[in-house]
Write a structure and sequence with these properties.
With 432 residues, the chain is α+β, with helices and mostly antiparallel strands. It has two domains: 8-123, Roll (SH3 type barrels); 131-430, Fumarylacetoacetase-like, C-terminal domain (Fumarylacetoacetate hydrolase, domain 2). Helices cover 18% and strands 25% of the residues. It has helices at residues 57-62, 68-71, 80-84, 87-102, 107-110, 138-148, 243-249, 299-304, 318-323, 342-350, 378-381, and strands spanning 34-38, 45-50, 53-56, 114-116, 121-123, 131-134, 164-166, 172-174, 179-180, 183-186, 195-198, 202-203, 206-212, 231-238, 241-242, 263-265, 270-271, 279-280, 306-307, 309-316, 328-334, 361-363, 389-390, 396-397, 405-412, 420-421, 425-430. A hairpin with a 5-residue loop joins β23 and β24 (396-397). The structure holds manganese (II) ion (MN).
Length: 432
Amino acid sequence: MIWWATDATHDPARISWVDSANGHADFPIQNLPFGIFSPAGGAPRLGVAIGDCIVDLLACANADLLPKAVATACSGDTLNALMALPASARRALRHRLSDLLSDSAHAGRMKLHLHDAADCALHLPARIGDYTDFYVGIHHANNIGRQFRPDNPLLPNYKYVPIGYHGRASSVRPSGEPVRRPKGQRKPPEADAPLFGPSARLDYELELGVWIGAGNKLGDPIPITDAVDHIAGFCLLNDWSARDFQAWEYQPLGPFLAKNFQTTISPWVVTAEAMLPFRMAQPARPQGDPAPLPYLWDEADQRHGALALTLEVSILTAAMRQRGDAPHRLSSGPASNMYWTVHQIVTHHTSNGCNLNPGDLLGTGTISAPERGGYGSLMELSAGGREPLVLPGGETRTFLEDGDEIILKATAAAPGFAPIGFGDCRARIMPA
Ligand code: MN
């Protein structure tokens, strides 16, 4: 089977009897993302977003509305069992849900299992065993590298190795959960010794999250041609970063306390199946760049492995909130500014035999565009804190202040298909 082929569930003409789904910016019937929600007074359970509503999957399974092969994976309070299923089972569930939510003959039964999203709480979608963060945003790597090494921003390994580090799974939190400003060691350039205290250079990082589906056994690498079978879906990911701690602690072993105090993700898992219409060719490497080594090279991946997604960051400061202002957009750019595809990072991660498990989370690394309007962090937008940004209303920012809220959004669009979105990935900074 051709993995990038679309089907009836992607038909832009398909509409739902859930009226709010039709033309919905994030969750039209062509999306159908999975998540964990609790209705008012209820326990966490599996759900699917449709317009302004959430379908209770366990209730549907109990009412014999879902395929037998997936029904048992719909109980519990995480998506891990669903993610572990082969893509064919997830596809069968998607087809069934698309039918149940488009054919009005099912509306009467299905309405019993539908909740208003506004009355529900959203949780982490999976028990995340491991979280790994990559560094595939080449323009971000260039922009940051230039601040340290103006003549040689990229290190020699960058164009051969998808650079990454193991992050901290325990502090990944869903959208909406506040972020306490971390305390830590920083050493101002003029100081003789480091200080311990609240970060003075707190930043966000705009990233795409990749959810691992079926895992691999320890010792069994995932070939690049099979990587697509191991990705369950995608989310937005904000890798909050204390730049002052980072600069002092990162050598020689890499990021640690500058990153692991919290990571915020959007709670809906936009499935690999929902993203099929938004596959695109991986942009050609600039003349003179080395070709990927053979274990990272696959023709189909090069032709279909990138994502037609527009990513966006907005800020809402305490003063803006008080005035009732709308969030101010800081940047917007395409997710195709990734030097490696999501399949290449999965294959590279396992190339030494390292095992991935269902519900593991990979971050792509900050995705920046070459031009300023697409920079994915304040470190880039404020040129390392040297050039403050002026916000509407006159406030300025180099790094985040207490009370600031950062909102990430993603929209997938392609000619001839209904656009879909990821929902919000947002969180507010609380005092240390
Ligand atoms: Mn990062």
